[in-house]
């Protein structure tokens, strides 16, 4: 599978690291509610279909970006940011 790095162009997926669900909202800084942080860090959905994800180009520019991808077909929708 090829991923479109916004800085380096299309590269093989082996150059990247998956960074997680980009649609998940991070708890506010300084929130002392441990259950909220536990859920954010350890609980996740396993969606089938269109999804936004964080990826890092570890063997290239090392930058992070958000990618739209269909998890059922691996069709890339493009870089979101």
Description:
- With 81 residues, the protein is mainly β.
- 11% of the residues lie in helices and 38% in strands.
- It has 1 helix and 6 strands.
- The chain has one helix at 34-42, and strands spanning 2-5, 9-12, 17-21, 50-56, 64-70, 76-79.
- The strands form 2 sheets. The chain has a 4-stranded antiparallel β-sheet with strand order 3-4-5-6, with no helix packed on it.
- The longest helix has 9 residues, at 34-42.
- The protein is globular and about 40 Å long.
- The two termini are 20 Å apart.
- The model has no long low-confidence stretch (mean pLDDT 92).
Gist of the model:
With 81 residues, this protein is mostly beta strands. The protein contains 1 helix and 6 strands, in the order E-E-E-H-E-E-E. The chain is globular and about 40 Å long.
Task: Set down the secondary structure blueprint.
Elements: E1 2-5, E2 9-12, E3 17-21, H1 34-42, E4 50-56, E5 64-70, E6 76-79
Antiparallel strand pairs: 1-2, 3-4, 4-5, 5-6
Give the tags.
11% helix, globular, 81 residues, two-stranded antiparallel ribbon, mainly beta
Which radius of gyration do the C-alpha atoms yield?
14 Å
Which overall shape is indicated by the principal axes computed on the Cα atoms?
globular
List the total number of helices. Answer: 1
Proportion in helices: 10-25%
Low-confidence residue ranges:
none
Mean of all residue-level pLDDT scores: 92
Distance between the termini: 20 Å
Give the class from helix and strand content and strand pairing: mainly beta
Q: Topology as H/E string?
A: EEEHEEE
The total count of strands amounts to: 6
Strand order of the largest sheet: 3-4-5-6
Q: Proportion of β residues?
A: 35-45%
Major beta sheet summary: 4 strands, antiparallel
């Amino acid at each position: 599978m090829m991923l479109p790095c916004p800085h380096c162009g299309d590269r093989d997926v082996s150059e990247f690291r998956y960074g997680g669900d980009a649609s998940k909202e991070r708890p506010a800084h300084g929130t002392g509610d441990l259950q909220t942080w536990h859920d954010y860090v350890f609980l996740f959905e396993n969606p089938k279909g269109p999804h936004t994800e964080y990826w890092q180009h570890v063997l290239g520019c090392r930058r992070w970006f958000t990618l739209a991808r269909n998890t059922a077909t691996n069709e890339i929708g493009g870089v979101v940011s």
